[in-house]
Design goal:
By secondary structure, this protein is of the alpha/beta class. It contains five helices and five strands; from the N terminus they run βαβαβαβαβα. It has a five-stranded parallel β-sheet, with helices on both faces. It is globular and about 40 Å long.
Length: 129
C-alpha cells in the first residue's frame, strides 16, 4: 500500500522523495501514466499525490482534473511542483484543482515538512474509529 503516489520520471527526485518519505514512515509508489495513477488511487486511496508538472508527457494536468472530477478521489491531497519560469503551468494546474503548487526549489526545501504533515494526517486517519 502506498501512502503517497508519485507521477514523475526524474529518478533523482524519486530517490529524494522516497528517502524523505521513508524517514517519516511513509511508503511511496511511482506511476508513469494517468491511468495507473487513477487505478492505484481507486484501489487504495493515498494520503497524497505528488506530480511533476513539468513532465507534460505524463499529462499531470489531466491527472489532476480526473482526480478532482471523481467524487471518490477528489479529497486526495495533490501537490504539484514546477519550474519557476513556468507560470503558465502553475496557472493551468491551479485551474485543474491542484491543492498545493510549488516551484521546484521550494518543493525541495519544504518536502520534509510536507511529508511530516502527510504522515501525521495518515496516523490521525488510522486512529479514527
Amino acid at each position: 500500500m502506498a501512502d503517497v503516489l508519485l507521477l514523475l520520471t526524474d529518478l533523482t527526485f524519486l530517490a529524494r522523495i522516497r528517502a524523505a518519505a521513508e524517514a517519516v514512515g511513509l511508503a511511496c509508489q511511482r506511476v508513469t501514466t494517468v491511468e495507473d495513477l487513477l487505478q492505484h488511487a481507486r484501489r487504495q486511496p493515498p494520503a497524497a499525490i505528488i506530480l511533476d508538472l513539468g513532465q507534460e508527457r505524463l499529462e499531470p494536468l489531466r491527472a489532476i482534473a480526473a482526480l478532482k472530477a471523481d467524487a471518490a478521489l477528489r479529497g486526495i491531497r495533490t501537490i504539484g511542483y514546477f519550474s519557476h519560469v513556468r507560470e503558465d503551468v502553475r496557472a493551468q494546474a491551479r485551474q485543474a484543482g491542484c491543492d498545493l503548487l510549488l516551484p521546484r526549489s521550494a518543493f525541495v526545501t519544504q518536502l520534509p515538512k510536507l511529508l511530516r504533515e502527510i504522515a501525521a494526517d495518515r496516523r490521525r486517519a488510522s486512529d479514527a474509529p
